[in-house]
Amino acid sequence: MRILIIEDDDRIAQPLAEYLRRQHHIVDIATDGLEGWEWSQSGLYELILLDLMLPKLDGITLCQRLRAASSNALILMLTARDTTSDKIIGLDAGADDYLVKPFELKELAARIRALARRSPEIRPSILIHGDLQLDPASQQVTYAENILSLTPKEYMILEYFLRHPNQVVTRSAIFDKLWEFDKTSGEGSIKTHITNLRNKLKAAGSSEDLIENVYGIGYRLRNH
Q1: Per the confidence metrics, is the pTM higher than 0.90?
Q2: Is the dihedral of CA 151, 157, 160, 166 positive or negative?
Q3: What is the mean pLDDT of residues 29-45?
Q4: Which of 31, 46, 193, 210 has a CA positioned 20 to 30 A from the CA of residue 96?
C-alpha cells in the first residue's frame, strides 16, 4: 500500500515508517497538517496515518477537509487521547479507525490488514514486465509462472525497478530510497543484491539479464 504518515513527532514517525517499509509498503512522511494536506492531494495514498494533534492544521480539521474533498483514502487516526468522546469526534470527522498511543507495531499492522479487508478496492495492482510479475498484495514474484524466493531487500529492489520501468536507476537512488534506516550496508551491497536477483531470474527461465547495466550511471529493466 501507499501510506502517508502525518505526524509531527519524529521519534514516532521515523520508526513507524521503517517498520511499514519492512512490510513492503511505500511510505511518505508529512510533519504538519498543511504539509499533510498538500501531500494527500496527489491522490496516490491508499492509507493515511493521521495524528490528532498537529501544528498548522489539526488532525480533526484535516480529516474533515479530506472527506469534504471526497478523498477515498483510509484514515487511521493516531492520538494520545483515550476517551470515548475523542474517539467519537475522530470517527465522526471521517476516520475509519482510531489507535491510542503508545501502541504496539504489530497491533497497527493488524489494524491495517483489517482496514484493507474492509476495502478490497485498495488492493494494489500487479506489476508486470514481460514474463515478470510482482503482486504487492501477496508479495509473490513470478517469472514465466515460476515463483521466485527473494530476500526482503531483493524484493524491495525489484519492486522499485518495476515501479520505474522506463528509468535508469542509480545505486545511490536505490540506497537512499530503500536503505534509509540501514546506513551500515553501503552502496556496494546493492551490487550483490542485484547479482543475486539476476541469478534467480535466470534460474526461473530468463534467457538474459533482465536488469541491465547502464555504464557509468546505474541499472534499468531491459525492454522485453
Answers
A1: no
A2: negative
A3: 85
A4: 31
